[in-house]
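To the wet lab folks,

You asked to see what we're planning to order before we commit. Fair enough. Below is the target structure as tokens, and below that is the sequence we designed to fit it. If anything looks off to you, flag it before the synthesis order goes out.
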């Protein structure tokens, strides 16, 4: 399925964040719209119940973003149909009460601080031997 590859790539990013102990850095929350977009590609897109499921799941995407994804969605095989105009209208009806920001794309200028833990070395500077082959005679041990 088309949604599997993006979801796999996002999972790799999430795993990297966990491996670096950066779950609380704000990066995971920044990925949430991308995660929901990948899930949207994998969900059924036919009935009113499907529309309700999409609306309840995609809370980090605006109505404009959901509609754009559905309009651009191209089935991967001939057994799957394009998303119908009626289904997209159903989504818009479900989401018309939302007070979404007007932007379509994510704010790529958004920055958030990342804190890296400081782990001091147990090696003391006076125990380090600098080989002459490095040509670092200008360094003085203090």
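Sequence we intend to order:
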């Amino acid at each position: 399925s088309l949604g599997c590859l993006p979801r796999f790539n996002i999972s790799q990013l999430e795993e990297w964040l966990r491996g670096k102990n950066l779950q609380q850095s704000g990066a995971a929350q920044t990925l949430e719209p991308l995660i929901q977009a990948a899930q949207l590609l994998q969900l059924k897109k036919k009935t009113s119940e499907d529309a309700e499921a999409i609306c309840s799941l995609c809370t980090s995407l605006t109505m404009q973003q959901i509609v754009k994804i559905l309009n651009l969605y191209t089935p991967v095989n001939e057994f799957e149909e394009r998303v119908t105009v009626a289904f997209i209208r159903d989504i818009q009806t479900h989401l018309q009460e939302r007070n979404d920001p007007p932007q379509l794309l994510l704010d790529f200028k958004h920055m958030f601080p990342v804190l890296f833990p400081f782990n001091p070395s147990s090696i003391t500077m006076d125990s380090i031997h600098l080989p002459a082959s490095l040509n670092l005679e200008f360094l003085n041990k203090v």
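Structural context that might help your review: The mean pLDDT is 81. Helices lie at 4-19, 27-42, 48-57, 63-72, 85-95.

Thanks,
Computational group
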